[in-house]
């Protein structure tokens, strides 16, 4: 059989062009392409009019879907062009790499062996501990008596040198270094991918084969050597199968590195060795399907193990291979003009001349992407690297490029379930934003909300919550915008279950098993309630109960209260039984109230600020809970903190404000404590902390309570200059948290200085202008009462 081996680089533009030319010249009667045979079931779709690259084959273990890999293809992928040629010419095409069934099976066996070894070592350690014979030498097998590093347990060889490690990872780096390149990929591009010459494809592939021959002979390979041996053994086996089937002219399209290993496919010793190495390999069942891919994801090192960082540039080279740079720079200029930037034709010409000059200095036949980027940044971006980043995203990567797959393709169970639920909820897939206002009292809207919340749990952000102008919790706002990448995310989450609800349940439970944080578990419950994942909620509550009984971390307990109280409002609208959650909240708040005063004692500034935020959130949760008994317990605890010595003033200030807002202490008492905090006997730093805690992000009280305003104004006015400069960052931080309108009003008020307190308005201390007309204001009160419905 006449055999032609065409070595390529995956996603290589020059490789793809040479493949097309060489296949047309050879006209083989069978084509073998690198890729697992499982892909044979889906490659017939390559020429389907609705399959638009970039796309990828998702191959997964049917029994354990979490074990999966992707095989991405672009229009300029050599394998894509080879398969397209075969289908157009009705030439049989076989995928010839080691079956994924074996690859997955080997990985499973390795994991089982690792787990078995781990358990064995644990058992040995327990036994040694019981016998009390553990010694430093016995527990450190990595060092021998002479202090020398022992051979690797996996390979039986000594450690790799820095030289060997570099070239085991990328053997091309050796040739690149000799040629003066820092990057092996760049050297390969300049010598094999960018130098496509018509009618020279035979010379091209002979040059590739010669290069790989030399590398395989002289460069040591350690990385994945065992797996590569198996793959090449199976490739040779496939070539022999093609010969046995009676084909007379066979073309092999494979990664350039494998080429030399396939030439001796028919030697007797090689056949014997291949049969021996492939015998008895573990196996599992594998399924495949096409999914849409993106240019950004073409950079992923998965499947073929070849990622590319500039797919947009490669696509340009595929479409305009003879372009020396002028067409590319024109595209860059057009993009900048679309962004309302002033780019002239002269700019483009100047950039092109600079790129050509750079190429000549580097002894290149034409400018490459590096030269064009440098010219773009210098001339079109005026030296601005941020503008070049825009070129990278929009053109070099082409992040908006998304592939398409036929609708009639076989789908995973979770995809079918998703489509069925989507149709049931009457939600359309569109690329444009579409807003929905859901009334949770209606069955359809409740189903929609439940469905979108479940997708949220799976991190599939099809819907984004938006605010709507309504009161209560019976309405939700969602903005839906479908992006093709979400199809990939849906398939990825299919590893967790065949339906959306099953995937949500297992995914959330898996996250829960990985954390010991009560706050995080409460956040998971917050996600699970609107998604109505009741079995998950039950297990999360059990774990929180378990952890909270042994936890002494008050911050952790407080962090859990707010999200748990927040989900309680779904009870009436969603008809959810939240009895267990309410009981848990009661227990958590009781523990918090018991331990909080002592937890606040002796804290430094950083920890006090954290405690300050937790106290605020817990107070908001208590108010939302609307439980009088718990409110009284909470405010009693705050009262203890307010009068306890040894507590940071930021916490005391916060506590005073919360008790004032809750009407536990009145205006007179608040003003007294405010005055004490700002008295001359108080350290200025402590006073500033008290103010920060008391104002807690809102300056409204300073605008309307003139007593407090005057106390604060007098305190700032009497500060010595050095103390004022020392406290300025704290004061700036405090006032920076106010709304812009509040800051503006406070600034205007500060210009007036001390405010005269008007005591003629029934004891109110709200300041009013001196020329305020009380008689005229009183005439309007009756009308205002009628408008407000006040009897």
UniProtKB/TrEMBL annotation:
InterPro entries given in the database record: DUF5682, LolB
What highest taxon heads this organism's lineage? Answer: Bacteria
Output compositional bias ranges, type Polar residues: 137-146
Which Pfam families does the record match to this protein? DUF5682 (PF18934)
Q: Where is this region: Disordered?
A: 120-157
- Which residue intervals are annotated with compositional bias (Basic and acidic residues) in the record? 120-129
Name of the molecule in the record: DUF5682 family protein
Q: Which organism is it from?
A: Xanthocytophaga flava
Lineage of the species this protein comes from: Bacteria, Pseudomonadati, Bacteroidota, Cytophagia, Cytophagales
């Amino acid at each position: 059989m006449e055999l032609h081996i065409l070595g390529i680089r995956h996603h290589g533009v020059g490789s793809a062009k040479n493949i097309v030319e060489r296949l047309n010249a050879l006209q083989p009667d069978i084509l073998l392409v690198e890729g697992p045979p499982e892909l044979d079931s889906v490659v017939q779709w390559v020429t389907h009019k609705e399959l638009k690259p970039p796309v990828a084959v998702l191959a997964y273990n049917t029994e354990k879907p979490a074990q999966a890999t992707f095989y991405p293809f672009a229009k300029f992928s050599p394998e894509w062009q080879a398969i397209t040629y075969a289908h157009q010419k009705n030439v049989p095409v076989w995928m010839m790499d080691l079956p994924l069934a074996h690859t997955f099976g080997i990985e499973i066996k390795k994991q089982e062996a690792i787990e078995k070894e781990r358990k064995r070592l644990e058992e040995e350690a327990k036994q040694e501990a019981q016998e009390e014979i553990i010694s430093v030498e016995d527990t450190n097998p990595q060092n021998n008596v002479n202090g020398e590093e022992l051979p690797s347990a996996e390979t039986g060889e000594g450690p790799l040198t820095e030289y060997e490690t570099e070239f085991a990872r990328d053997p091309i780096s050796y040739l690149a270094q000799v040629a003066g390149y820092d990057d092996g990929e760049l050297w390969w591009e300049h010598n094999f991918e960018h130098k496509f010459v018509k009618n020279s494809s035979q010379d091209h592939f002979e040059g590739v084969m010669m290069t790989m021959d030399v590398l395989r002979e002289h460069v040591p390979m350690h990385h994945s050597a065992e797996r590569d041996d198996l793959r090449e053994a199976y490739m040779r086996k496939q070539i022999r199968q093609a010969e046995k089937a009676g084909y007379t002219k066979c073309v092999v399209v494979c990664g350039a590195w494998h080429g030399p290993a396939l030439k001796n496919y028919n030697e007797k010793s090689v056949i014997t060795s291949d049969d021996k190495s492939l015998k008895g390999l573990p196996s599992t069942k594998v399924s495949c399907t096409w999914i849409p891919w993106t240019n950004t994801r073409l950079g992923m090192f998965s499947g073929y193990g070849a990622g590319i960082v500039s797919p947009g540039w490669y696509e340009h080279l595929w479409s305009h291979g003879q372009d020396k740079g002028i067409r590319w720079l024109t595209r860059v200029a057009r993009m900048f003009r679309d962004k309302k930037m002033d780019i002239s034709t002269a700019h483009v010409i100047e950039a092109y001349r600079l790129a050509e000059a750079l190429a000549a200095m580097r002894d290149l036949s034409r400018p490459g992407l590096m030269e064009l980027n440098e010219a773009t940044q210098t001339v079109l971006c005026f030296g601005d690297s941020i503008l070049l980043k825009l070129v990278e995203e929009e053109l070099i990567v082409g992040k908006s490029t998304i592939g398409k797959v036929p609708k009639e393709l076989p789908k995973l169970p979770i995809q079918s379930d998703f489509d069925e639920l989507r149709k049931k909820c009457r939600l359309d897939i569109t690329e444009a934003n579409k807003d929905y206002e859901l009334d949770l009292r209606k069955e359809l809207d409740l189903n929609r909300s439940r469905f979108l919340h479940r997708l949220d749990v799976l991190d599939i952000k099809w819907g984004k919550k938006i605010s709507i102008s309504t009161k209560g919790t019976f309405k939700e706002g969602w903005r839906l915008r479908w992006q093709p990448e979400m199809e990939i995310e849906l398939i990825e989450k299919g590893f967790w279950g065949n339906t959306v609800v099953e995937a949500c349940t297992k995914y959330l439970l898996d996250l829960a098993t990985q954390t010991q944080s009560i706050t995080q578990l409460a956040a998971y419950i917050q996600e699970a309630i609107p998604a109505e994942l009741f079995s998950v909620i039950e297990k999360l509550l059990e774990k929180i109960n378990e952890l909270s009984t042994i936890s002494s971390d008050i911050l952790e307990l407080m962090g859990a209260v707010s999200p748990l109280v927040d989900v309680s409002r779904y009870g009436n609208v969603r008809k959810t039984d939240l009895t267990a959650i309410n009981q848990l909240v009661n227990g958590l708040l009781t523990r918090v109230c018991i331990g909080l005063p002592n937890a606040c004692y002796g804290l430094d500034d950083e920890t006090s600020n954290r405690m300050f935020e937790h106290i605020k959130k817990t107070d908001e949760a208590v108010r939302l809970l609307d439980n009088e008994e718990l409110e009284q317990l909470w405010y009693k605890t705050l009262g203890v903190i307010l009068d306890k010595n040894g507590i940071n003033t930021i916490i005391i200030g916060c506590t005073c404000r919360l008790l004032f807002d809750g009407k536990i202490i009145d205006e007179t008492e608040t003003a007294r404590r405010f005055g004490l905090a700002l008295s001359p006997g108080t350290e200025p730093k402590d006073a500033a902390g008290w103010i920060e805690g008391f104002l807690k992000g809102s300056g409204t009280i300073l605008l309307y309570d003139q007593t407090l305003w005057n106390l604060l104004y007098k305190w700032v006015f009497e500060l010595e200059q050095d103390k004022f400069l020392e406290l300025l960052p704290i004061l700036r931080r405090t006032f920076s948290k106010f709304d812009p309108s509040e800051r503006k009003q406070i600034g205007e008020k500060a210009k007036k200085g001390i405010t005269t307190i008007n005591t003629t308005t029934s004891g109110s201390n709200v300041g009013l202008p001196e020329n305020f007309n009380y008689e005229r204001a009183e005439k309007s009160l009756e009308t205002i009462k009628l408008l407000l419905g006040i009897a």
